[in-house]
Amino acid sequence: MSSFIVMSLLFGLTFGQTASLCAPAEYTIHVEKRECAYCLAINTTICAGFCMTRDSNGKKLLLRSALSQNVCTYKEMLYQTALIPGCPRHTIPYYSYPVAVSCKCGKCNTDYSDCVHEKVKTNYCTKPQKLCNV
């Protein structure tokens, strides 16, 4: 019986790591400035997917460090800059955004990620749209 438990535990640990489906995914960002005539639709990649997490029901029995939940976050990224068309001279017409090169399951880093799930904001243009393919 004990060898069955050990084998089940090893299988669970192995499968748990391979069951994480965290990878770059296509995403469209809509960017507009009040002063500019157009909205820019930027095709980029973000990190998205499923990461194995721990059940925190036993939080009174576990150390605080054991309760952290993994999220799909950037392993490697680069920044691109796009030019928003139709901006007057006094306005800075550039917008910089991250592009996911590779992703990992790990702790959320607030230096470059929004780690709080907020109410979904609409991602659309209110002005005529221009497309930027990167």
Automatic annotation (TrEMBL):
InterPro entries: Cystine-knot_cytokine, Glyco_hormone_CN, Gonadotropin_bsu, Gonadotropin_bsu_CS. Residues 1-16 form the signal peptide. Residues 21-125 form the Glycoprotein hormone subunit beta domain. Pfam families: Cys_knot. GO terms for cellular component: cytoplasm; extracellular space. GO terms for molecular function: hormone activity. One of its GO terms (biological process) is G protein-coupled receptor signaling pathway. This is Thyrotropin subunit beta. Belongs to the glycoprotein hormones subunit beta family. Its main location: secreted. Keywords: Disulfide bond, Glycoprotein, Hormone, Secreted, Signal. The gene is Tshb. SUPFAM superfamilies: Cystine-knot cytokines (SSF57501). The keyword Lipid biosynthesis does not apply. It is found in: Secreted. The lineage of its organism: Eukaryota, Metazoa, Chordata, Craniata, Vertebrata. It comes from the Eukaryota. Heterodimer of a common alpha chain and a unique beta chain which confers biological specificity to thyrotropin, lutropin, follitropin and gonadotropin. It comes from Baryphthengus martii.
